[in-house]
Amino acid sequence: MAETSAASDVRSEGEFEFIQPENPFAGMCIDDTTFLQDVEGRSSCTRCGKSRKFFCYHCYVPVAELEQKLPFVKLPIKIDVIKHKNEIDGKSTAIHAAILAPEEVKVYTYPNIPDYRLEDDVVLIFPTPTAVTVASLFSGSCPKVKDNYGLPKGHHIGTLLKCRLNEIVADPNETKVEDRSTGQMTHRYPVRKAVFIDSTWSQCRGIYKDERVACLQTVVIQNRISQFWRHQKNSPRWFLATVEAMHQFLIELHITAFGLDSRYRGLEHLGYLNFPSEKVVDSERGCKEKETGPYNGQYDNILFFFLHMYNLIHEYYEHHTLRAYRRPLFLEDKYRKQLLEEKQKEEEQPKNSNVLS
């Protein structure tokens, strides 16, 4: 795995201080991407014939030169991506997953999408007031989110979500979701398919309101510091690129089902992910060996192209100079500061009026 040229960066928000690591992908089981640097020129797509560098972002296939070199990934569930029509295909990280996990990942352009009202065991990875955690998919409990994720009344939860895992608490009057429990629950997954919306946060609202999508149980993943280089205005650092969100959901799903290998170090630079200590297990299995073993990087290669692009961009730009990495960790700190400034201005106005009189 190629090392980046980014300098360490410190960002402090409230009580949490995040130090940007020299290599945020250290410890992950991602294959070496350096051979991509040796690809010269462009090749014709084997399906549509258009000129492409590494893969065709319309046909979702790699160029012929790379077909035998890429680290394809086998995923435990199916994944559908609903892409907004204004999202540029060549810039979408969801395409990375479709290339590297072609048997499980399908990409649809809205409004041409499946009707999920006709499918069972499908969830939508999207933050809403009724979203449940990955762990609760297994337990059947419905955790209650504290006070609209701590946001001011009227703010859109999809654009300002800020909750950490430990801020989601069990409702003392909790209800049970449809009983999925069997004696083999710990040996299978409670969902068959996960759906992701690939768009900016301002664009995704219209897709979420579609009845074919709104019928799905929503799931919220843990906070994680994004390494995406594309800046989104008024978004915190833990708003993930689509392929990052897929990776996060997959590792949470696997760890909840089969545990986390104590030797795995790929989570150490992602922020403040929180897994119960009983989920950490000792294992003699090697990296990516068993689908049913504790997590030890089985799905990390879904970030293969993402890592290459990250390294490429950091060859030309210092990490701290890119706007995407200067975003606040939590937007509520920004709004609290704004409210405090407005309050101070209001208190100063009467004083100024007395002086003028």
Report on the architecture of this protein.
By secondary structure, this protein is of the alpha/beta class. Helices cover 24% and strands 15% of the residues. The protein is built from eight helices and 16 strands. The protein has helices at 94-100, 134-139, 157-160, 201-209, 211-214, 242-258, 304-316, 331-356, and strands spanning 9-13, 16-20, 43-44, 51-52, 55-56, 61-62, 78-83, 105-109, 122-125, 132-133, 144-145, 168-169, 193-198, 217-220, 260-261, 280-281. The protein has a six-stranded parallel beta sheet, with helices on both faces. It has a two-stranded antiparallel ribbon with strand order 1-2. A two-stranded antiparallel sheet has the order 3-4. A hairpin with a 4-residue loop joins strand 5 and strand 6 (61-62). The model is unreliable at 1-16 and 148-187 (pLDDT under 50).
Ordered list of secondary-structure elements with their pairings:
Elements: E1 9-13, E2 16-20, E3 43-44, E4 51-52, E5 55-56, E6 61-62, E7 78-83, H1 94-100, E8 105-109, E9 122-125, E10 132-133, H2 134-139, E11 144-145, H3 157-160, E12 168-169, E13 193-198, H4 201-209, H5 211-214, E14 217-220, H6 242-258, E15 260-261, E16 280-281, H7 304-316, H8 331-356
Parallel strand pairs: 7-8, 7-13, 9-13, 9-14, 10-14, 15-16
Antiparallel strand pairs: 1-2, 3-4, 5-6, 11-12
The radius of gyration over CA amounts to 22 Å
Element-by-element helix/strand order: EEEEEEEHEEEHEHEEHHEHEEHH
Helix content: 10-25%
Q: Total number of β-strand segments?
A: 16
Note the gap between the termini: 70 Å
Identify the overall geometry: globular
Give the averaged pLDDT, no decimals. 77
